[in-house]
Amino acid sequence: MEKFFERLKELRQEKGLSQTQLAKETGISKSAIGFWETGDRIPNAQAVVVLAKYFGVSADYLLGLED
Prior knowledge:
Layout: H1 2-14, H2 19-26, H3 30-38, H4 45-55, H5 59-63
């Protein structure tokens, strides 16, 4: 899951978004995004799908299963 944590933060920063802004855009709590970026928690499947759609990447990419 380490790739997920890295890619989430990288994609968020590439869009110039704060965690708060990403939370508002996706309907995911800011605290969840923060926990995921630090690796303190693992997202559920629904959250992965929401984030993949938002960033326009595959869930496999976001999870580090493909480049």
